[in-house]
Amino acid sequence: MTQENQQQKNLRDVIIVGSGPAGYTAAIYLGRAGYKPLVIAGALTPGGQLVNTTEVENYPGFPEGVMGPDLMEAMQKQAEKFGAEIVFDDVVSVDFGDGSDKTALKTVTCDQGDVYQARAVVVTTGSDVRKLDVPGEKEYSGNGVSYCATCDGFFFRGKPIVVIGGGDSAFTDAEFLTRFGSSVTLIHRRDEFRAAKIMVDRAKANDKMSFMLDSVVDAINGENGSAQSVTVRNVKTGETTEVPAAGVFVAIGNTPTTEFLNGALELDEMGYIKVDGASTQTSLPGVFAAGDVVDSVYRQAVSAAGMGCRAALDAQDYLDSLQ
Fold this sequence. Notes:
Blueprint: H1 3-9, E1 11-17, H2 20-32, E2 38-40, E3 55-56, E4 66-67, H3 68-81, E5 85-87, E6 91-95, E7 106-110, E8 115-123, E9 127-129, E10 145-146, H4 149-152, E11 160-164, H5 168-177, E12 183-187, H6 197-204, E13 209-212, E14 215-223, E15 226-234, E16 240-244, E17 247-250, E18 254-256, E19 287-289, H7 301-322
Parallel strand pairs: 1-2, 1-8, 2-5, 8-19, 10-17, 11-12, 11-17, 12-13
Antiparallel strand pairs: 3-4, 6-7, 7-8, 9-18, 14-15, 15-16
Helix pairs in contact: 2-3, 2-7
C-alpha cells in the first residue's frame, strides 16, 4: 500500500479518543448519522472506570442493576452495530492545529505507531481517581473500597463507613453516606479542611458524623474478601488506631486524563478541558470534549452519556458546516 493510500485509509470524518459512557454514546449517535466514527478506546481499560465497577444500580433502564463491564460491553456492541470501528490502543500525541484554519485535519498518533487523521475529534478520555496506595486498597476495591458514594453508598446500609479526604467532594460524599451508614467517620490528614465552611458546619452538626484530623490511613483491613476496618495513624503523635469500616470511600480528588494533549487544548485550573458554555466545543474548532475529562462536579455514567450525545450532535453540526 502506497503512503498516499495509507493516509487515505486512516482519514476519517470523526475520531473519538476514549471510550466509557461518553465515548460510546457519541459513537452510537455519530454512527447512526452515517459518519462511521473511529473509537480509540484505550489499551488497558476500554470502557473507562465502569469496567472496574461491580453492580451499577442507578443507570436508567436497569431496575435490577447491571454490572459495569456488562454495561460497557453492551454500549460498545451498540456503537459497532451502527458502524463504529473500535481500536484498542492509547493516543500518545495529537496535532489539532492552531485554530486558524477551520478545515484543517486533526492528527492523532497511537502508542502502537498508527497515525490517524480526521475532520473532527471528540475527546472522552475521562479521569482517574486519586488513590491512597496503601495495603488492602487494591485487594478490597469493589468489596468495601469505593471511589463513588452515590454509586455504592446503598450497599453499606446500617454499617460503619469512613470517608477519606477534606475537600468539598469528601464532605458531599460523607453527608450523602449518613443516609445509609450506621456512622460516618471523616479522616483528614490536616487539622483544617479545604471544604467550604458551610459544608463543614453542616457536617459537624450531623449526629452521625465524626472526625479524625491530622490522620492518614495506613492500611485497609478485611476478612472473607471484604473490608472490615482501616488502620489510622495520627501524623503528629504517631499513634495508630483501628477504625471499623465496612465501607471505605476515598475522596481525595480526580485527575483528568489530558497528558496526551500536551497543551493542544485549553484546560481549567484543575486540568479539565474547558468547553464553551453548555456546548462541548473546546478551544479549537472541530474538537469537542465530553464526560469526566470535562466534568469535575457530577462524574456519573448517565451524565457522561448525556454529554457524549451532545458532543456527537455538536460534531455533526460542525461536519455539516464543512460541506
